[in-house]
């Protein structure tokens, strides 16, 4: 099922970190790798999977590609889940 596969992709901590890092603005592969302490090869691999699942998209600006969350549906799910987790921890 496609929905289960999408959540499986979101369940990987590295992919989730990449998505969250790109949530507010488009980022280049080198910026993602440097800021998250990952290799560019690893970031590129995860971006390929995220693009394939239509969770991220690349926007070319001259010679570079900047990656961003694909649309408001994806950003809303990520933002809502982050808020949900913060609320749960606030009650502890």
What does this structure look like?
This protein is of the alpha+beta class and 92 residues long. Helix content is 63%, strand content 15%. The chain is built from five helices and three strands; from the N terminus they run ααβααββα. A three-stranded antiparallel β-sheet has the order 1-3-2. β2 and β3 (64-69) form a beta hairpin. α3 (29-36) crosses α4 (40-52). The chain is globular, with a radius of gyration of 14 Å. The N and C termini lie far apart (35 Å).
Protein traits:
92 residues, alpha+beta, three-stranded antiparallel sheet, 5 helices, 3 strands
What topology emerges from the helices and strands here?
Blueprint: H1 2-10, H2 13-21, E1 27-28, H3 29-36, H4 40-52, E2 56-61, E3 64-69, H5 72-90
Antiparallel strand pairs: 1-3, 2-3
Helix pairs in contact: 3-4
Helix content: 55-70%
Distinct helical segment count: 5
Name the average pLDDT: 93
Characterize the largest beta sheet: strand count, sense, and whether it forms a barrel: 3 strands, antiparallel
Order of helices and strands: HHEHHEEH
Q: How much of the polypeptide forms β-strand, as a percent range? A: 15-25%
Strand order in the sheet with the most strands:
1-3-2
Shape: globular
What is the gyration radius calculated from CA atoms?
A: 14 Å
Q: State the distance separating the first and last CA atoms.
A: 35 Å
* Low-confidence parts: none
Structural class: alpha+beta
Number of strands: 3
